[in-house]
Amino acid sequence: MSTKDKKDGHQGDHQIDQQLQNKQLKDDEAFIQSLYDDLASQEPSQEEYPSKEMDEKILAAAHRSVGSSPKLVNTKRAWYLPIASAASVILVVSLFFNQLNDPVMQAEMSFSGNSPASSNPSEVAEQEELVSEQLYDVSPSDNSVQASTEMLQARPAMSVQSKESLLKHKGINKNQQAMKRISLQAKEERKQSKQLQASSYSALNDEKQLIETSKAVPEQISVIVMTQELFDKLVHMNSFWLFVNEEKEFYHIEVVEQDSEKMLYKLDKKTYYINRSMQKNKTKRSLKELGKLTEN
Amino acid sequence: MTSFITNDVEQSITDEALMAAYAEGDSASFDLLYHRHKVAVHRFFLRQNISLAVAEELCHDTWLKVINARKSYQVTALFRTYLFTIARRVLIDFSQKKSSTNEQSFNQEIEPEIEVDDKSKTVSNHQLKQALTNEISKLTFEQKQVFLLKQDAGFTIEQIAKITEQHKEKVKSNWRYALQKMREGLRAYVN
Question: What gap in Å lies between CA B164 and CA A111, rounded to an integer?
Answer without folding.
Answer: 90
